[in-house]
Amino acid sequence: MPKTASETLFERFCESHGIPYLHIPKEQGPTPDYEIAVGTERIIVEVKEITPNKEEQESDRLLAERGYGEVLSRTPGDRVRKKISDCSPQIKARTAGKHPSFLVLFDRGRVAGHLNPYNIRVAMHGLERVHISVPPIGMGSPYPTGMSYGPKRKMTPEDNTSISAIGALFMTGPESVFLNVYHNRYAQVPLNTTLLAPYRVAQFELEEDVPSRTSKWRAIALSLEP
Question: Global pTM?
Answer without folding.
Answer: 0.88
